[in-house]
Amino acid sequence: MRIETLAVHGGHQVDPGTGAVTPPIHLSTTFARETDGTYPHGYSYSRTNNPNREALERCLAALEGGAVAAAFSSGSAAAMSLFQALSPGDHVIAPNDVYHGTARLLREVIAPWGLQTSFVDMTDSVLVQRAVQARTRLIWVETPSNPVLKITDIARVSEIAHRGYALCACDNTWATPILQRPLDLGADLIMHATTKYLGGHSDVLGGALVGKVEDDFFQRIRKIQTTGGAVPSPFECWLALRGIQTLPCRMRTHSESALQVASFLEGHPGVEAVHYPGLKEHPGHEIAARQMTLFGGMLSAQVKGGREKAFDVAARVKLFTRATSLGGTESLIEHRASMEGPETRTPENLLRLSIGLEHPDDLIGDLAQALG
Ligand SMILES: *Cc1c(COP(=O)(O)O)cnc(C)c1O
User: Fold this and answer.
1) Is 223 a catalytic residue?
2) How does pLDDT run across 77-89, given as a tens digit for each residue?
3) 75 Cβ inside 6 Å of ligand 1
4) Helices (H), 278-351
5) Is 99 a catalytic residue?
6) What are the sequence ranges of the domains in the chain?
7) Does the model's pTM come out above 0.85?
8) CATH topology for 3-244?
């Protein structure tokens, strides 16, 4: 089946009890046992499993072409669970421009627990290879990256991981399975913040891990999920599954509009640089064109006039909302450096844009008046 069909039907079935076409939300935390002690429907307690969570997990596995998925209460809880499935003393290689929350997680929460991380420029395979150690068990890829949309060759990095004893995991939040399928390119695991495009409406926090195979390592992830309990509520699962139904259409529109906005900004005299992998001049364009079907809805621009001008532009926009996050129907603008805090590597004149589903001409008009 094609991905558009999987997005609509994955994890869905007409409710056998009522005939409801849209799935019911199962709020019950506990499920009845038979007299012999068994659970006839396979559910016992909602932390362990729940029909809404199971439906979401089945859908996510299908979309990514994986064997199995585990849903979490946030993208960060998903990442955390993957790191915890490794062992103290193990070594991880992560991009030096990894999502700032993931960097903080590795440095401030996971490092004291005993996992070592090397942060490298993931777009340079020589540097990635050089960072591999005897205890390297995981190479973490995030592409396109945040906020300058660097592109990492997933097949290349997976190959480096597999030359040793490491798994390759890809944070596929920005591309989504509609634009990029890391498991097909050689990755072993995928992480998602369903908070973003999968949920798609800025109204649900969630995360997931998808495994290519349901092996011992994924069983450890499952144990951390069900024992640690960082699980999403039934309603959150329902919202994410509902969002996924329109994901293919949304990603097409986000991508088409982002390309138009990027092209406009590229030609604007007040703009110093535009970062969008769909532009031919982007250093990762060739790899992106190979491993993605479209280039996504995220872009960033560096304005002439430094931090002050960037704040001024963000203050003048009327359609864009000044807010963090991404992947909703509404367009957002963000001064990223001030969001990331003092350890940021992001240029002070950079604005990150999440292009929503408004008409691109209206978005371009808004940016034109704001840039002056
Ligand atoms: C938002 C985001 C995360 C974290 O997800 P939360 O749901 O906020 O915990 C991780 N990676 C990327 C690329 C993100 O955009």
Assistant:
1) no
2) 999 999 999 999 9
3) yes
4) 285-291, 306-316, 336-340
5) yes
6) 3-244, 248-371
7) yes
8) Aspartate Aminotransferase; domain 2 (3.40.640)
